[in-house]
Write a structure and sequence with these properties.
With 427 residues, the chain is of the alpha/beta class. The chain has helices at 45-62, 87-90, 93-96, 112-121, 135-141, 143-150, 191-196, 238-246, 248-251, 256-274, 339-349, 351-356, 375-379, 400-405, and strands at 3-9, 15-23, 30-39, 76-77, 79-81, 101-102, 104-108, 155-159, 182-184, 186-187, 207-210, 216-218, 222-228, 286-292, 298-307, 311-317, 327-330, 357-361, 383-387, 411-414, 418-426. Helix 5 crosses helix 6. The strands form three sheets. The chain has an eleven-stranded mixed beta sheet with strand order 10-11-8-7-5-3-2-1-21-15-16. An eight-stranded mixed beta sheet has the order 9-12-13-14-17-18-19-20. It contains 14 helices and 21 strands.
Length: 427
């Protein structure tokens, strides 16, 4: 069967908001996903406008399934992936969730003490107005509880840190199915993990853990391979972890005053433990590969660049034809800054998937500290996508050296004004 495929990167400036959609040849079914949704200026009027326009474009791009007869019904997002918990990657989700029917959310798993380290580094305030716990802090304390309250009936899929020397499973001999049903290579949650996430009902089937080397896949058609390189162990002391464990029950309680006191105590302990040392918080970032399982042919049609404030008509550009290449690698703010990290990810994905790679979302908006000069040649993308605000005096992304690394690999900049779409057919 011939399937149509599109990748969209929305103009949100210094942040990341991207989606993808696979359509059945008869157009009676489709599978749509989002990877990250945020911008560093979302608290300002401009940032809110950027996200609002992107929500509208997302609705137009994914459309509705034929079984959604009511024009007022919400479009469906089959999968929403969160790479990590920096504000410029997640602060658009609060307004995204009410506008779409979200079936499942994929996010990296980290224990409570790690989540609190990230919250403190992100300078999340414990309390909002009227002595209520800041919703953003609630997300860090218990993301499962936060998401389940925000989206009724959603399935939550957690990706634990990927063990070294793990080989990802494959499903290349599976039969092609007509139904777009996503399956998950999962494992049972441990009692420690249930306690860490405050899961008191063991039979809760809405929370899943991806097993080591596991994937999410549509039989015979498409697969997603998550890769979670979490590297915060060296930053925590056993003493800090114990302080968090001692306050776990309080943090999971409904008493805002007690929660506030526990958070302030832990923040002081965090400051005493780590001080002002340089921190690599974004080493926790969920990579996500997406690609056909055994497509016989992939045909890139064209790449569309559109300008929000200039024209409603896209500027179309024919891409170089690369048969059998339509995979994508999302990297969030992850690190591929050493040859060992590059080798580990390539080994995990294996050479067959790397050979199918067409589009690479460049790490951390093109920051130099996240990208080794060998990344372009080792992954050999046709299109290298940068999502950033080059006019920002604070960030100055993308770095000029990183842009030069990718000069022969189709560099495309998505900023506050310009978005990008790439279309394919595969069978």
């Amino acid at each position: 069967m011939n399937y149509s495929l599109r990748y969209d990167f929305y103009p949100v400036g210094q942040g990341l908001f991207t989606s993808g959609t696979i359509r059945h040849p008869n157009d009676h079914q489709r599978f749509s996903w989002v990877y990250d949704c945020g911008t560093s200026s979302s608290l300002q009027k401009e940032g809110k406008e950027l996200l609002s326009k992107a929500y509208g474009r997302l609705k137009e791009n994914i459309g509705r399934n034929n079984d959604q007869k009511n024009d007022q019904s919400k479009p469906t997002l089959d999968l929403v992936a969160i790479s990590h918990f920096d504000k410029d990657h997640i602060n658009g989700f609060d307004n995204l969730f009410p506008q779409f029917n979200v079936k499942r959310i994929l996010l990296p798993y980290m224990p409570l003490w790690q989540r609190l380290i990230v919250a403190f580094e992100e300078k999340i305030r414990p309390l909002a107005r009227k002595k209520q716990i800041n919703p953003m802090m609630h997300f860090f304390i218990n993301p499962v509880s936060y998401i389940k309250k925000a989206i009724d009936g959603v399935e939550i899929v957690l990706v634990p840190p990927t063990p070294k020397q793990t080989i990802v499973s494959s499903n290349e001999d599976s039969e092609e199915m007509n139904d777009f049903v996503l399956q998950i290579d999962e494992r049972v949650l441990s009692e420690e993990e249930k306690g860490d996430l405050n899961i008191t009902v063991p039979a809760n089937t809405k929370i899943k853990f991806v097993k080591d080397g596991g994937r999410l896949y549509i039989n015979g058609i498409w697969e997603f391979v998550p890769y979670n390189e979490a590297k915060l162990d060296e930053k925590a002391t056993s003493g800090f972890q114990k302080e968090v464990d001692d306050r776990r029950n309080v943090l999971y309680s409904e008493n805002p005053d007690a929660i506030q006191k526990a958070l302030l105590d832990l923040k002081d302990i965090y400051g005493q433990t780590f001080g002002n040392q340089k921190r690599n918080k974004n080493i926790i970032s969920l990579f996500l590969y997406g690609g056909p399982i055994h497509a016989k042919h992939c045909c890139p049609l064209f790449q569309a660049m559109y300008f929000e404030k200039v024209s409603l008509r896209p500027n179309l550009r024919i891409t170089s034809l690369c048969p059998d290449r339509c995979g994508i690698l999302y990297t969030g703010d992850g690190y591929l800054n050493t040859t060992s990290r590059i080798k580990a990810l390539k080994t995990y994905l294996n050479s067959n998937r790397i050979a199918k790679l067409h589009t690479l979302q460049v790490m951390h908006h093109g920051a130099k500290g996240n990208c080794h000069r060998d990344v372009p040649t080792e992954f050999n993308p046709v299109v290298s996508l940068f999502s950033s605000d080059p006019d920002s005096k604070r960030y100055r992304h993308p770095n000029a050296s990183v842009l030069r690394y990718f000069v022969s690999h189709g560099p495309v900049l998505v900023d506050k004004k310009c978005g990008a779409t790439i279309f394919f057919f595969f069978h």
